[in-house]
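Collaboration report, partner site 2.

Our partner group contributed sequences for two proteins of shared interest, and the home lab folded both. The records are reproduced in the order in which they were received, starting with the first partner submission.
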Amino acid sequence: MSVFRRFLPLLVIILLAACGPSNAGTAHSTTLYIQDKGSDTIVNLALAWAEKYQVEHPDVSISVTGGGTGTGIAALLNKTTDIANASRQMQAVEIQQAKADGFDPIEFVVARDAIAVAVNPANPVSRLTFQQISDIYSGKINNWTQVGGQDRPIVRLSREVNSGTHVYFRDTVIRRGDAKNKTFFAADTLLLPSSEGIVSELRQNPNAIGYDGLGYIPADLKKIAVARDAGGPYVLPSVATVNDKSYPIARDLYMYTAGQPAGVLKVYLDWIVSSEAQAIVENLGFVPILK
């Protein structure tokens, strides 16, 4: 994984342009400007796509900004972006709001990602079950001795609530995919605004546990092998284990548009799922959708 990808910008602007959406998706649009906003998980991938596309299509200007999935979806609902990047699917209430505003949000799966659970390399714990991770993050397990580690308090790290990764981890891991389960993160969980913050804290704190997209966890941290239940198998996150579905914490990554895209916007989205663009997905540590 490149050093470039690990430095997640909260705000990246490729070309300075107007702050509102360009109507790039309209069939009769004369502008070739696309605004792309949302998930911090996707932002560097979206940036790499945009840079590559603009080299091949110099008449197209693409602005990429982060801020989190919630920010991107809010911008789509407010009609201030052409594309909303999301590391979770839109929620029913968000879809209802879009319909009330006169459009159907259109979903595009653009890549896949593993959520890696990681600890400081000094931590002897190397594997956990789904249930143990859920119990750690919900506050039922508070000392590493309860999962085979040293007598140390567990420090929980999480992305902040506006993050689609936070929502996905809560629903899929802490709540075990049960829509009726209302378990939340423990109150003392440290909510950090970026992948860099989680990585930094994990490096400094031997008691910490954190999670993030696989490509954002550097090699000097210890990735945890995860099992669906105590009987195993325990599987490390990788492109291969996401593809063969053996790693249990994996998800799709999305782009949303306000209605069916047209014009330059459609051409760009069609290119994103091409083999050329999906090669960039793999280079940045994500999982291409073509495999």
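Second partner submission, folded after the first:
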Amino acid sequence: MATLDVVAFHQTLSNWGRWGDEDQLGTLNLITPEVTATAAATVRSGRTVSCARPLDTVSSADNPAPVAHHMTGTATEGMGADYFAIASHGFATSHIDALCHIFHEGKLYNGYPAEAVTAHGATKLGIHRLHDGIVTRGVLLDIPARRGVDALEPGEPVFPEDLEAAEEQAGLTVRPGDALLVRTGRWPWRREHGPWDIGSLAAGLDASCLPWLRERDVATLGSDGVSDVLPSRVDGVGMPIHTVVIVAMGVHLLDNLDLDALATACAEEARWEFLFTVAPLVLRRGTASPVNPIAVF
């Protein structure tokens, strides 16, 4: 896709001011009490499925900053106690990005200045703004299943027509206020081929999907990768999905999810919609939070 077209998306797809000049929630405003109640009414079997990866304490090509886990209490001390240190961003930990995570031309979402992110944390758009959590309808679009493969190859793009074909196969339409989850099959590929530098080569959404995401008015977007196809296929724009979705549209991104058990559950339940809940940690002024999203059928 042409670079100028992607840059123009910052104006044509913008949600700045849509919910007021002081808004700090972005498209989460689309999750009204009515949307949540409707999503809760879809629960039938009561089956629950985690969409998170275990916190990885081992360094690898896709996890250069592993979680540090230190025991501060054992049988010797007479109790079990420990300490975790986590770099929430990156390509290993399941996390949700705050809207202060990405800058474009010196601005954050809704026009806040990049200087709002200080050495003491984000004074605007911090992850603590999500203290009430996300509870809405979740929708899984399983792209490898649609293409008849176990996994997309690293670097393989997903186009709007793929999303629409997966919608059709699932028998639903992504609608305003949904949590959209796009599976690429990252973890089966990793198990077969081993870890790789996903920051340089990853299956994901092509930049041409951006108008589609804006048209559907998704409340949040998640993937088993980082949503962006890498390389981006757009000269001079490294991660167009991250940049436009977060800064222009105000969509919180869920990265590095594990959607394999969810895909299995969807197939067994014969439905690709579910109640979806995310409860970020209340990290004041934080730019992200580790999460364990739960799907309920």
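Feedback sent to the partner group on the second submission included the following. The radius of gyration is 19 Å. The mean pLDDT is 98.
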